[in-house]
From TrEMBL:
Top-level taxon of origin: Bacteria
Gene Ontology MF, one: transferase activity
Protein name: Phosphoglycerol transferase and related proteins, alkaline phosphatase superfamily
Family matches, as InterPro entries: Alkaline_phosphatase_core_sf, OpgB/LTA_synthase_biosynth, Sulfatase_N
Species assigned in the record: Anaerostipes hadrus
Domain Sulfatase N-terminal residues, every copy: 249-520
Residues in coiled coil: none
Membrane-traversing stretches: 21-38, 58-75, 82-100, 131-152, 164-182
């Protein structure tokens, strides 16, 4: 038996060495299919369906992998090269499978660039045993690679000239096929939903395009002269605009998770209007459709366009600027523009501070405060574990109360977040669904529509609270993207699946004006109503929208601001990252008292993310309510100075209380 397997092994090795092109093709086919199976997280026939229905894309995936195997034609360590290429593609497939399982988002090249920031928080996603197992596997793999490098046979009579010719021919043919693919529409370099793209175009292509196309391509005519020409044209048009007194109302943007007008889906009926408040304010105030950069996912990219006024179409495929350029670059935003008029800028999100690195990015965008789930006492959650948006009304009011002047608030909701359950998990739903025969899809719709119905109640309560407050205010409310409910353009009675509904409520007498607006234009529309015409992107949109070379010049500006020489600012970025304050209400410790085994800490604004620290030592802490925490008596000694801190999932201390000296039995 041993001899039998040895003979098979020797035969395979001989074939690999003697017929590399055939072996490259066979391995490419096998790997391409395995990657699709892993990417679909299922071992049913869905991967076969991709091969059958998207045969051209599957062949292109094979070609991509085949090109990477071409290295075996020009290296003496041919067998070792086979192992390396196969291992790298296998890692892509396995990591993609794991990431889809843990975060519902595929593995892209950007994730590799963020590896440094991921390593410190791995223990939040994996147990010590799992981390240890991964470390052991990596060590074993490295040892095996070293052994393979040392002992696998070398091609002594390699015809490198012939090999290079073959590689050149392969690359030339691949380039031609790729060029044809883009011209024919088979391939795309703009991806609006990365998960759908992985399903439609395959893992090899999507991973490769995110590696090769990121950032903003340098415009062919980029120069200081060109940028100054764009600026001059904009400023000339600004100078001709009617001069009116600047209005300074509170400006509030509320981005509703996966929200759209679900009553506009053809054939789907509900027992009552699930969006009575949203419909009411759309009818009474400026409203319409908002064209978003993505479908089914991509909340952070919707934010990016609305906050910066930049068009994501000019960036790389499936790029998240929050994860790339804004990791180390500050830039102009609606926050920085309004702060020049005395505003304070607040961000609010009832999810984790570290999600999409917002705890860093909002500092880069000029926000002053950021209130997140960690700073909130959330008492109501969806059946899927997301915070209910009713908590946000109080958070917005706290932000407005925190200053005497005007405020800019950007609030991001989370209640409508997917995935949506295929089984019925809501007992006696308020909203019932008719017109959908597929039971699983009907259950998804039922769950979703009941979440947006509750979100609509939040909409009504927020407007009512602002009316009662009486301060001059403009409130924009809209969905960040459509939900992942298998909705296509033909299923809608309006526009397309990249458009969500919006309204612009105000109490300053603005004239109603309806229409479809690009997400990156909404901020400039609001500022125009306030007679604010400053800021590079704001003034550009207000004066150049719809004109010749609008998109071309916009790309020039975006490139210059984020990747170029920054000629718009005389080559010196004027924006500094802010010292972001997390939460509005301060943590305070007022007293302690003790029992036989425990010390109870009394104070204000505690949350279940609070941890007691004795110096730099974190103490195991039990949260009771917003005024009471408990630690073990053995963890604090007489005379110890401690503080209470809110700690994010990324193990970052977001905010801390005053220091307090524990005196044993000082309170009874």
């Amino acid at each position: 038996m041993k001899t039998f397997f040895k003979n098979i092994g020797n035969t395979i090795v001989k074939k690999l060495r003697k017929h590399p092109l055939i072996c490259n093709f066979v391995l490419s086919v096998v790997l391409a299919f395995v990657l699709e199976v892993l990417g679909r997280q299922t071992f049913d026939l869905s991967a076969v369906g991709f091969v059958d229905q998207r045969s051209k894309m599957f062949l292109y995936s094979i070609f991509i992998i085949f090109v990477t195997y071409s290295v075996t034609l020009i290296t003496k360590r041919r067998l070792f090269s086979y192992i390396i290429v196969t291992l790298l593609w296998s890692i892509v497939g396995i990591v993609n499978f794991m990431m889809l399982s843990s975060r519902n988002t595929p593995f892209t090249y950007v994730d590799i660039t963020l590896m440094k920031s991921v390593l410190p928080v791995m223990n939040n996603y994996f147990s010590p045993l799992e981390i240890g197992a991964m470390g052991a596997l990596l060590l074993i793999a490295l040892v095996l690679l070293v052994v393979a490098y040392m002992y696998l046979p070398i091609e002594e009579h390699l015809n490198r000239k012939s090999g290079f010719i073959k590689v050149i021919v392969i690359i030339a043919v691949f380039s031609g096929v790729t060029s044809y693919g883009f011209k024919s529409g088979m391939l795309v370099d703009q991806i609006h939903n990365i998960r759908i793209a992985f399903s439609d175009y395959g893992t090899p292509y999507c991973f490769s395009i995110t590696a090769l196309k990121n950032g903003i391509d340098k415009p062919s005519d980029y120069s200081e002269k060109k940028i100054k020409k764009i600026e001059k044209r904009t400023q000339k048009k600004v100078a001709k605009m009617k001069k009116e007194k600047v209005k300074k109302p509170n400006i509030i943007f509320v981005q509703l998770e996966s929200h759209f007008d679900i009553t506009q889906v053809k054939g789907v009926k509900f027992n009552k209007d699930p969006l009575p408040n949203f419909h009411k304010y759309m009818k009474g105030y400026s409203s319409g459709q908002l064209s978003m950069p993505s479908y089914g996912a991509g909340t952070a990219n919707s934010e990016f366009e609305l906050i910066t006024g930049m068009n994501l179409d000019h960036f790389g495929a499936a790029e998240y600027p929050y994860k790339t350029v804004l990791q180390n670059t500050t830039t102009e935003s609606m926050a920085t523009v309004l702060k020049n008029y005395g505003y304070k800028a607040h961000a609010i999100h009832d999810n984790s501070a570290a999600f999409y690195d917002r705890d860093l990015v909002f500092s880069q965008l000029g926000f002053d405060t950021f209130t997140t789930k960690e700073s909130m006492n959330i008492k109501k959650w969806t059946e899927n574990g997301w915070a209910k948006d009713q908590i946000l009304t109080g958070c917005i009011m706290d932000s407005l109360d925190s200053t005497k002047g005007q405020d800019y608030v950007y609030c991001i909701s989370v209640q409508g977040h997917g995935d949506y359950p295929t089984t019925q998990i809501i007992e006696n739903p308020e909203i019932t669904v008719e017109g959908i025969e597929d039971e699983a899809l009907k259950n998804k719709y039922t769950y979703y529509v009941n979440q947006v119905y509750q979100m609509d109640q939040f909409v009504g309560k927020l407007v009512k609270a602002l009316e009662q407050r009486g301060e001059p205010t403009i409130l924009c409310m809209y969905g960040d993207h459509l939900p992942s409910l298998e909705i296509e353009d033909e299923d809608l009675t309006y526009g397309n699946k990249y458009q969500t509904s919006y309204f612009m409520w105000d109490n300053i007498g603005l004239k109603k004006k309806d229409g479809t607006i690009e997400a990156y234009n909404l901020g400039s529309e609001v500022l125009n109503k306030c007679n604010i015409h400053t800021g590079l992107m704001n003034s550009f949109h207000q004066t150049r929208k719809g004109t010749k070379n609008y998109q071309k010049d916009m790309k020039e500006l975006q490139y210059d601001m984020l990747y170029g020489k920054q000629y718009v600012w005389n080559q010196e970025n004027p924006f500094k990252a802010t010292d972001l304050q997390f939460g509005i209400r301060p943590l305070t410790v007022t007293k302690v008292y003790e029992t036989k085994d425990s010390i109870f800490i009394v104070g204000n604004n505690f949350t279940n993310f609070c941890q007691v620290f004795d110096g730099d030592v974190k103490i195991n802490t039990t949260y009771h309510n917003e005024h009471l925490l408990e630690v073990s008596k053995k963890d604090l000694k007489d005379g110890d100075t401690f503080k209470v801190s809110i700690v994010s999932k990324a193990l970052r201390v977001l905010s801390s209380s005053n220091e307090y000296v524990y005196q044993e039995k000082s309170e009874k």
